[in-house]
């Protein structure tokens, strides 16, 4: 028992760790052309992300995602949009740093799998290139969303997530209305997709009892 206990503890006690990986999915927008239809006219998106797991429940995350957004009044049936007939295409680079909370313990364990739903929120910045004007603009964003992740072993994890980006601009689609509210009269965009991450750092675990025993030999 005395010989097996430290080895068993080493495999089952949580160890702070970092992981990095790649993301692929779709991006779409909500705004003047598309006020409420989620996953309307999705464009491709991809990027990279890094996570640092402090505990089983708490994680710091950073990502850089590329996405394509588009919209066309011709896709909608109301008379106002049929008469307006505006459209746009935009590419963007989305960066954010945030906090991720795991609803169940997400444990790094060499012999057991681990999975959990999670939610995240943070602060971000986007660089947007409009095809209508050819001009690039940058904007602060508030990202938030939900996801689910599954760890195969102490190295590889997969996950899926859907996240919104609250912006503070009404010009992503090239259409600016009269400002009646700083919160509601703005464009939004979203990313949804899958990712794979690989462990790139893990803090070692050392049993205090074994350390003391070694010290006084």
Q: Care to describe what's here?
A:
The protein has 217 residues and is mainly β. The chain has one domain: Porin (Beta Barrel). The protein is built from three helices and eight strands, in the order αβββαβββββα. It has helices spanning 4-12, 79-84, 208-215, and strands at residues 17-30, 43-53, 58-72, 87-102, 114-130, 136-151, 156-167, 188-202. The chain has an eight-stranded antiparallel barrel with strand order 1-2-3-4-5-6-7-8. A hairpin with a 4-residue loop joins strand 6 (136-151) and strand 7. The longest helix has 9 residues, at 4-12. It is elongated and about 65 Å long. It starts with a helix and ends with a helix. Mean pLDDT is 83; it is low at 1-11 and 210-217.
A few lines on this structure:
The chain is mainly beta and 217 residues long. It has helices at residues 4-12, 79-84, 208-215, and strands at 17-30, 43-53, 58-72, 87-102, 114-130, 136-151, 156-167, 188-202.
CATH class: Mainly Beta
CATH topology-level fold name: Porin
- Quaternary state of this entry equals single chain
Please give the count of helices. Answer: 3
Number of DSSP strands?
8
Give the CATH architecture. Beta Barrel
Fraction of residues in H or I helices: 10-25%
**What is the domain total for the residues?**
1
Give the neighbour order of strands across the main sheet. 1-2-3-4-5-6-7-8
Sheet with most strands: 8 strands, antiparallel, barrel
Tell me, rounded to a whole number, the average pLDDT: 83
Name the helix and strand elements from N-terminus to C-terminus, one letter apiece: HEEEHEEEEEH
> Which structural class best describes the helix and strand composition?
mainly beta
Shape: elongated
C-alpha Rg, in Å?
22 Å
Poorly predicted runs of 5 or more residues: 1-11, 210-217
Strand content: over 45%
Straight-line distance between termini: 20 Å
